[in-house]
Please model this.
Amino acid sequence: MPPPTPAPPGLHTALSSDEWFSACDPALQSELLRLARIRHLAAGESLFARGGEADGLCCVVAGALRIGALNAEGHSSLLAWLEPYQWFGEISLIDEQPRTHDAVADGPSQVLLVPRGPLLAWLEGHPAVWRDMARLACRKLRVLFVALEELAQLPLEERVWRRLQLVARGYDSRDTPRRHIRLSQEALAQMLGVSRQSINKALKTLEAGGRLCLHYGEIELLGANGNPGSAAPAGPAMG
Model:
């Protein structure tokens, strides 16, 4: 495993494409970059495991990470698929409990790691900035509430469409959604708790309706009526 390396100069601009980071106190932005190190991961390599000790705040800066876990029967679930420049790991930072899920590289990836001890020490001296950490957790809680509502109320085709939109928006971390998503049908099936065959059928229905195009290795979102950028509403946010 290659040793962690310092964060490269100029990373601040790229990180600012994330809504949470760009809205953080400038002092926190600077401290995150000062403390951060880059961890290089090979395809399939674990960043951390469910139940493991929390070692800090993380951000994908290259590649992608699969966030999920194995159930009692040994079947894998996929909670989230994270791309640059999405932050995660704040739950264990806040409550000081073990990691809630596994994080595994989906191909060669790089992750920014901000070590827990030095970051907590700095936050102790800047208590007002804890509000920024709470915002990161609250953003994900809102996404979870919407996903639970969709699970109970919507047919599979609409659930697939909205999950694709959520991934395209970086779980509400991007103002401008991505049009092309490199997410496998197997991964979508794990996210939604259904079979790959059911996902394939739902995607074909969405494609026939002009909402997306299926390409080799990626899905292109076209919008609600086949128009690029004309995305359907993602569902109500809960306060």
Q: What stands out?
A: Residues 130-153 form the longest helix (24 residues). The first strand starts at residue 5 and ends at 6.
